Amino acid sequence: MIWSLAKIIIFIVGVAALALGAGWLLESEGGVRIIVAGMEITLGPLQSVIALIVMVLVIWLGLKLLGLLIACWKFLNGDDTALSRYFARNKAAKGFDALAEGMMALASGEGRVALAKAEKADRYLNRPELTNLLTAQAAELAGDRKKAEETYRKLVENDATRFVGVRGIMKQKLSEGDTETALKLAEKAFLLKPKHIETQDLLLKLQAGKKDWAGARQTLSAKLKYGSLPRDLHKRRDAVLALSEAKQILADDQTIEAREAAISANRQSPDLIPAAVMAAHGYIDQGQKKYATRVLKKAWEAQPHPDLAAAFAAIEPDETPAARLKRFAQLTRSHPTDPESRMLMSELNIAAEDFPEARRALGDLLETDPTIRSATLMAAIERGQGASDAVVQGWLTRALSAPRGPQWVCGNCQNIHAEWTPVCDNCGAFDTLSWKRPPSTELAMPGGTEMLPLLGAQAPTPVAVLDEPQADSDVIEAEDLGNPVKKGA
Ligand SMILES: [Zn+2]
Hints:
69% of the residues lie in helices and 4% in strands. It has helices at residues 2-27, 45-76, 80-107, 111-124, 128-142, 145-157, 162-176, 179-192, 197-209, 213-225, 231-251, 255-268, 273-286, 289-302, 306-315, 321-328, 339-351, 355-362, 365-368, 372-384, 389-401, 452-458, 471-480, 484-488; strands spanning 32-36, 39-43, 407-410, 416-417, 433-436.
């Protein structure tokens, strides 16, 4: 503000001074008299001022010309830098102009134009780290992969641009599907710039994809160290990775390490269901049933889940249904009205053939939150109580059109997984699976489900699965649709 005001004041004062000076010169008498070789020239006051200005200009031009002449003279004498130095400033300006135009073309998506400008800039400027960057980007945009890779390789040779080069080649390998090479390049890029968040994430994804859990845990620690990951998220993801590491070791039959790793994973994150299940199985194998019970009870407190119930059943695989019912009471003591607890108690009562109690355990679940599982349980209860086939089939029909209930759903692509995995099978995202209701609840059936009640109401012959009315066959039916207790036993 003050500066622009000062500029305006200086301008006005300058104009006023010029006007005053010109007026004074016009009014004043006398002038300059020059005598050259007997010739006498008399200049008026204004004329003499103009002559002075012209003289200064001529001297300036003469000096410039002299500079060029000296440069030419030196050039002719073998000093080729003299002339080039004289023109260098001009050349650099042209080069930067071309560079700017190239960047403009790049931003407007004209790959070919950008490539041409990059070549021009390269000719005028001796700055390969700048021009190669533009060339690589332009080639990438124009779809000239070979040229792009060639330029990235040039960038790798320079210390200042090595990271950009490695990252460029890595992206190319990734788009070609060569994850093996991409992983190696990502490791190199990570060494060059450990704080680069995109590289961290990419390396983590590639390591998880290659099941390099130990490496992924290291990358995760780096993410925590450089502050690009909140501490609680790091804890959770590290538990996920520790668990995956454990799973792999378990597959190789190295059970002691697996147990230790799984238990450490569980300690870090008691709310992580798969970790709790792994830890419980570790304790069961060690014969420490008390610890297994404690771990599962703690996890159930955090979130009731069928996998926890299955692991809890595995603690005593050979107990009677009545004993099991009694033992499970300590698990469902927390969250007794949770749908998961209710369905679990109902299943256990069906197994113990106490059908009225199984019905009571379900409560108003069928009205408030009907799912495939609860409707199937209802069919089993009705069968156990000796209801007609029509009634049983009515419940099974309801099960067909009921929502699926919570599942392991990928938050990224909404794909449903039968069991928890650290990496989504469908989209390859890391740690995106969560236990929730899938977005689409309606079962996709050609023609919809409106004809199903007809089938249930007046089917003359029983449906195949219910052909032999045994108490067991109902439970097996329920198991197929997600009953965890029999599965775990
Ligand atoms: Zn996914």
